Amino acid sequence: MAVATREYGMWIDGEFAQAGEVRDLREPASGELLARAAMASKEDVDRAVSAARAALSGAWAKTPATERSRLLHALADAIVANRRELAELEARNVGKAISSVKLEVNQAVDNFRFYASAIGSIAGRSNPIGGSLLFYSLKEPVGVCAQIVPWNYPLTMATWKLAPALAAGCAVVLKPDPATPLTALRLGELAAEVGIPQGVLNVVPGDGPTTGSYLVSHPDVDKVAFTGSTRTGAEIMRLAASPLKRITLELGGKSPNIVFADANLDDAIPSSVWSIYYAAGQSCEARSRVLVESSVYDDFVSRFADAAGRLKVGDPLDAETQVGSLISENHRQKVHRFVEQGRDEGAEVVLGGEPGNGDGAFYPPTVLAKVENRMTVAQEEIFGPVVTVIPFADEKEAIAIANDSKYGLYATVWTGGAARGHRLASGIKAGSIGINMPYTAFPGIPFGGYKQSGFGRELGIETLELYLETKSVLVSTGARAYNPFAL
Ligand code: NAD
Fold first, then answer.
1. pLDDT tens readout for residues 315-332
2. pTM over 0.70
3. Which residues of 434-469 are buried (b: 16+ CB within 10 A; e: fewer)?
4. Catalytic site includes residue 21
5. Pocket residues for ligand 1 (CB within 6 Å)?
């Protein structure tokens, strides 16, 4: 279905609300006007937090887990029913290939279904400690959660955060990136349509340093869950310190993709191409450092560049497109500056390396070879369709180079040796390791970072714990009352 240009209010307390500031949102792939969206002021954030607080002490608090499960399944059904609209909205707003976005919408559905089912596993425990003391624990929602998400996967990132929070019984104020709020706003509307009570889910688009920092510092917010850059994550940690809030941070990455000579290159090469150019490289877990064993390095680089050169770059709405545009012209310039810096530092540009002509923020798949891990292009997150290919001599050096990064989000290993795969999985400091498998995010499998890639896990059953408090209840079951002072 065609998404008509429309004006979006903020989503507060179960309805669209107007704001003092309304911005034009343009499609990054064409520059055309897509929508107009309201931006939240501090007063709007106050209203959203109050609505969430009121929901927590009202209908939502009385909603049993079985009913929350039903509501999350109903929201998943509503996403399925509106999947074409959501996919088109996201593809046009972000500039991403619709073929990829359709998979993201499917994952959003699966994610709500996973947590809708997992609600049943939220349970305290009991333990009769000693003869006259019974202990049991209650699991209670943490409270009002501020959730802040970036522009690269607006719907996916929102659902990664919303599903466990709502399953746990929390109420949420979600702040999308001001450039990409549309699918999150539509999700707010769908949540109301399926019967999630007003105030439980609020969406307040706005700039990070103003709206975002005000939300994070808000005294009536109990928890902050953030996805974005490591630099902003550090600022969030500082802002969330007074008054103290629980926080989880999903941050940047510079993930290695390690290819040994004993790997099946016919499998490793197409998967490695996908692992960097999916979402035009604008993924936290993009495998942007490809480490290749020296004996197959030249062969790998030439076959990889050949495959990358055959990717279809273009109109995000064309079903054949594999790589869409970048998020903005500014971002394209930033990506290109990294490529120039790589050239200056001695990297060889084997493919791409020049911004596209014409409308839209397109940048071609780019391969930088002869890269050393100390170079800026191998250390900093470029967040674009640029891969750095680095040779290594042996397993020990592969692990050393993989770990020579401030980040630790993901790593992929390609090898014919099963034991070697497990040795790498143990030696690499990252939140997840894929062995002979490029995919990264599955509902049910914990996802998150080591080191400067953040802390806390999303997508897993353990994520629920991050949205719950554990209350210990201690009961005397003895025949005589405790009287420690013998009074
Ligand atoms: P960013 O940190 O600039 O912005 C992310 C979000 O934070 C946006 O909504 C922004 O408005 C908000 N924000 C910015 N400053 C803020 C402040 N002072 N207070 C509160 N909110 C603030 O990141 P970005 O450039 O939009 O996103 C790309 C980054 O996100 C990359 O580093 C990428 O690796 C990371 N990312 C990580 C994951 C993950 O799961 N680990 C997933 C996707 C993206």
1. 999 999 999 999 999 999
2. yes
3. bebebebbebeeebbbbbbbbbbbbbbbebbbbbbb
4. no
5. 148-153, 157, 175, 177, 207-209, 212-213, 216, 227-229, 232, 235-236, 250-253, 284, 381, 383, 409, 449, 454
